[in-house]
Amino acid sequence: MSNHIRTKKLITISMMVLIAATLLVAGTASAQQAAMRDNLPAIDTSLYAAEPIPLRVDQCGQCHTRHFRDLKLSGGKHQFDCRECHEVFHAYNPQRNNYAEIMPLCATCHGQPHGDKHIECINCHENPHAPKRVPMTHRLEGICSDCHGPEATELQKFPSKHTEQACNSCHHSRHGYIPVCAECHEPHFATQAEATCMQCHPVHQPRTIALAADVDLKTCDACHSDVYATWDGTPSKHGEVGCAECHTEHGLIPACSNCHETPASHNKKLMAMFPKCLDCHLDVHDLPVK
Ligand code: HEC
Ligand code: HEC
Ligand code: HEC
Ligand code: HEC
Ligand code: HEC
Ligand code: HEC
Ligand code: HEC
Ligand code: HEC
Ligand code: HEC
Ligand code: HEC
Ligand code: HEC
Ligand code: HEC
Q1: Tens-place pLDDT, residues 54-74
Q2: What is the per-residue pLDDT across 149-164, written as a single tens digit (0 to 9) for each?
């Protein structure tokens, strides 16, 4: 590079620095001017006269709509002030990674209501703002009997096809769900009401069938149509006696003596020859009558 060119370049650089410096000074001056607003705020000490009123719960809810709604609809016994649990809030700092530290602990207020086997509360009570909404997850499967001994024992003690069903095949979807029989079964006759099923079939021991005296006899007709037809057409007074008044349990055969003394008119000798009442009276569902 020649000397001449080098000198020329130096001059150019010096000039640029000078221009830049001038511009910088001018810029700072105009920034100072812009900071001077025309209308500066007026001082109002009354704004600071009162102490701040703590937020009401519904005000927390203005921002935390989901939490408020959960508590409102499903909060149950947790429907008290947020701050009873959240003694510290708006204090989460990702840099300090203090989330767990500021969140409320169940143990502040609760012991171990289900014993020392089930102490990870939040595993099951996933949402403390809707504490009773426990989802039916694999977590609950197979441990029902820890908390529901009586039902599990009942199913074992009275073996039936329901004993072979997993609890959550019926109690599916969510904890506490109660199924209707119609999810899996047809009624015995078309108009049979769902509400009647459990009068005859206690669901955890469905084969224990106690028959109330006033059961709808169309049920019996569904499986014993021959007997039903005989009984329905009989001119004898047994036609006024309901099936379940005699058959108080399913399959039970009553003794005549449950309801009848041997009539005085009945000759002892004849009775000795025909020890069974039905030897003469033939068909209990259709007694021969004059
Ligand atoms: C019975 C105690 C209890 C009450 C009452 C309660 N919370 Fe919570 N809340 C908790 C617990 C425990 C957690 C931590 C949940 C977790 O770790 O998953 C939590 C978490 C939160 C979170 C952060 C986690 C998230 O779900 O976004 C917010 C926000 C929150 N609560 C707001 C509220 C508001 C607002 C109210 C009142 C309207 C309220 N809470 C009432 C116990 C409570
Ligand atoms: C003006 C809106 C607003 C109000 C009112 C408000 N919060 Fe919050 N809150 C937020 C925001 C934004 C966050 C951070 C984002 C998030 O977690 O949803 C937050 C986070 C939280 C958290 C979790 C994180 C933390 O730092 O604690 C809790 C708990 C909480 N709020 C409780 C409350 C309670 C209790 C009230 C009422 C006393 C309340 N908030 C009122 C906006 C609000
Ligand atoms: C600030 C205290 C407090 C905290 C923290 C708290 N609870 Fe509660 N909880 C209560 C009170 C009070 C009740 C009603 C007590 C009673 O009836 O025995 C209750 C009731 C419940 C119920 C029954 C709800 C109902 O409607 O019947 C469940 C479930 C429950 N709590 C679970 C939890 C779990 C899980 C946690 C932690 C995530 C927790 N609680 C944290 C105070 C608290
Ligand atoms: C394995 C799951 C599971 C765990 C873990 C668990 N719970 Fe529960 N808890 C339940 C179920 C299910 C219910 C019944 C909810 C309902 O009424 O539908 C319940 C009910 C409750 C009730 C109401 C009591 C009642 O008799 O109605 C309280 C209070 C409670 N739990 C607190 C806790 C606390 C505190 C912990 C932790 C120490 C905890 N739970 C751990 C499943 C669990
Ligand atoms: C950690 C304890 C716990 C476990 C595990 C548990 N439950 Fe419960 N369950 C409860 C409590 C507490 C209640 C409410 C009080 C009561 O009715 O006994 C309840 C109530 C119920 C109810 C009655 C709801 C109503 O409307 O009466 C059903 C049904 C039920 N549980 C089924 C189950 C089934 C099925 C399982 C297993 C998949 C299960 N539970 C596991 C504690 C538990
Ligand atoms: C074939 C379906 C079915 C099976 C299997 C079943 N349940 Fe039930 N369960 C029901 C029905 C229906 C009810 C409602 C009974 C009522 O209203 O009297 C019920 C009621 C309950 C209740 C509420 C309290 C009560 O007795 O009324 C509990 C708790 C319960 N079941 C637990 C269990 C457990 C635990 C198992 C497994 C060991 C189980 N159930 C198996 C259908 C079933
Ligand atoms: C989730 C399905 C389901 C529900 C809900 C259900 N059951 Fe069943 N039930 C079964 C199955 C499966 C069998 C066995 C059927 C078979 O082997 O043909 C059965 C068998 C029965 C039996 C015969 C029992 C035996 O050992 O012979 C009776 C009675 C019965 N159910 C009544 C009811 C009644 C009443 C209800 C309602 C309270 C009900 N069930 C609800 C699934 C269910
Ligand atoms: C008046 C009593 C009564 C009523 C009400 C009743 N059942 Fe039955 N159910 C019986 C008898 C009795 C049997 C036969 C049991 C046997 O074979 O040992 C039976 C059998 C069953 C069986 C076993 C399968 C079969 O068909 O043999 C199922 C399933 C059943 N009932 C479901 C229901 C349902 C669902 C309802 C309600 C819609 C219902 N029952 C109402 C008395 C009743
Ligand atoms: C779902 C079909 C079904 C229904 C409904 C039904 N039964 Fe039966 N019943 C049977 C079956 C199957 C037997 C034979 C198997 C047995 O002994 O359990 C039987 C047996 C009987 C027996 C005993 C028969 C003997 O030879 O010992 C009597 C009595 C009886 N049922 C009466 C009734 C009455 C009364 C009703 C109405 C409340 C009724 N049944 C409803 C299916 C049914
Ligand atoms: C007055 C009492 C009485 C009434 C009412 C009655 N039964 Fe019977 N039932 C008996 C007696 C007793 C026997 C046994 C008969 C025998 O040993 O031959 C019997 C037998 C049966 C048997 C088994 C033998 C057979 O004939 O198949 C069935 C099924 C039966 N009854 C169903 C019914 C039905 C269904 C009704 C209503 C429509 C009904 N019973 C009404 C007393 C009664
Ligand atoms: C649940 C009770 C009950 C049982 C069990 C019972 N009966 Fe009757 N029986 C009656 C009633 C009620 C009448 C009507 C009585 C009246 O109106 O005076 C009756 C009437 C009769 C009559 C008169 C019939 C008529 O139409 O005048 C004869 C005969 C009779 N029963 C025989 C028997 C025999 C035989 C048995 C056993 C196989 C038997 N009963 C079982 C309740 C029963
Ligand atoms: C040897 C045949 C015979 C035997 C056995 C018999 N009865 Fe009779 N019973 C009759 C005759 C015949 C009548 C009258 C029929 C009529 O008047 O229609 C009668 C009538 C009745 C009457 C209705 C009239 C009255 O007197 O109240 C009853 C009730 C009765 N018997 C019950 C029984 C009982 C219960 C037994 C079993 C302990 C029995 N009978 C055994 C033949 C017999």
Answers
A1: 999 999 999 999 999 999 999
A2: 999 999 999 999 999 9
Q: Best substitution site from 211, 287, 290 to test ligand 11's pocket, by max atoms within 8 Å of Cβ? A: 287
**Which atom in ligand 1 lies closest to the alpha carbon of residue 63?**
35
Residue nearest to atom 31 of ligand 9 (CA): 251
Tokens of 202: 């206690």
Closest CA to ligand 4's atom 2: 124
